[in-house]
Amino acid sequence: MSQLRSPLPLAVALDAPAPPHGSHDAAHYVALARLAERGGLDFLTLGDGFARPGPDALAVLARVAPATERIGLVPAVTTTHTEPFHVSTAVATLDWVSRGRAGWSVEVSTTEAEAALTGRRRAVPPAEAWREAGEVADVAARLWDSWEDDAEIRDRAGGRFIDRDKLHYVDFAGTTFTVRGPSIVPRPPQGRAVIVVDATTTADGADGADGADGAVREVAAAHADVALVRAEDPATAGAARAALRERARAHGRDPARLIVLASLPVELESSGDAAGLADLIGDWHAAGAADGFHLRPADPVRDLARVVDGTVPLLRDRGLLRRSYTGTTLRDHLGLPRPASRYAPAREAS
Fold it and tell me: Which of 162, 46, 54, 149 is nearest to 94 (CA)?
């Protein structure tokens, strides 16, 4: 088994319950994000869905971005009923607003009720939706690469904003869409925003009747920077981590560049509970279960405070967490390099 990361990446979900004044209250999420940042957590995730009232997760975190400084911001973005070009542009904009702290949790929609809300298309089976999501993740990365890093000139005297030779057409043809490009947004500060996929599978790793599990795993293995795995024991989590990295290798990727986090439910009713969570994380890490952990609090207001004030100090004392942020971007926090534009070498070689 490949070496596990230490210090551990640690992230938190801010999905439930609803804010006290409804989902329009961005101040609720600002307060939670600042608390997570005080604990030095690497990133937070915010779920979404078409039935959720108010601003979408990406818009909420765009409001959180200027109110925070270091913590990574990873909204769920559904690909099924959203144009890939718009997904890429919106996530790139969040990366600019946050100064390089954006990620994107890939989600799909499979119900007729959600399809009816947009009227764009009928619902599709889960496996088909996830295969399309993989194509969206692929083209989003290509669109982020379509501006070379130094494409902006900003020559006011000469009247030139960009070097057209450093903008590139993508010319991507997917199963259900085509994208030509280039992007209308300059290349994100991170080069590419961090892609997160919840790659949870059945306990035995077998596909369900609709083949969706296998499709999700393929998207994670081929495109994700971070894969989340929900498991009830370290052996199951470790097996999922090994399988995902092996699939990443089959896609021609360096398996070490795929960070696998065990996604754990958290309900901390007392500060003894906070210590128990630290013990559990330490035990799972020692067993090789995951590179790090993604916590899903039952009550973010209560549980996150106990994680920050109780669990985090214990993990730091045990050498499992860093004591402060050492970088400024989400890629810095996760130890991921900033990728070069795939189109720049082709231009330089011509």
Answer: 46
Q: What is the DSSP letter of 193?
A: P
Question: CA–CA distance from 222 to each of 63, 94, 121, 274, 289 (Å)?
Answer: 31, 23, 26, 35, 21
Handedness of CA 95, 98, 100, 106 (dihedral sign): negative
**Alpha carbon of 240 to those of 123, 134, 245, 280: distances in Å?**
29, 19, 9, 18
The span from the CA of 86 to the CA of 129, in Å, is 17
Rounded to an integer, the average pLDDT of 302-306 is 96
pTM of the model: 0.93
Between strands 172-173 and 43-46, the pairing is unpaired
Angle between helices 234-250 and 271-286 (to 10 degrees): 50
C-alpha–C-alpha distance, residues 220 and 198, integer Å: 8
The one-character DSSP state at 73 is E
Alpha-carbon distance of 242 to 263, in angstroms, equals 16
Q: For residues 131 and 129, what is the distance between their CA atoms, to the nearest angstrom?
A: 6
Q: What are phi and psi of 225, to 5 degrees?
A: -90, -35
- Give 257's DSSP letter: G
The position carrying tokens 């986090």 is 261
Is the pLDDT score of 211 beyond 80? no
Whole-number pLDDT of residue 121: 84
| 199, 240 contact by CB (below 8 A) | yes
Q: Is the pLDDT of residue 150 over 50?
A: yes
Amino acid at 129: A
Instruction: Judge contact between 179 and 141, C-beta under 8 A.
Output: no
Identify which of 314, 310, 326, 308 has the alpha carbon closest to the alpha carbon of residue 36: 308
Spatial contact of 325 and 69, defined as CB atoms under 8 Å apart: no
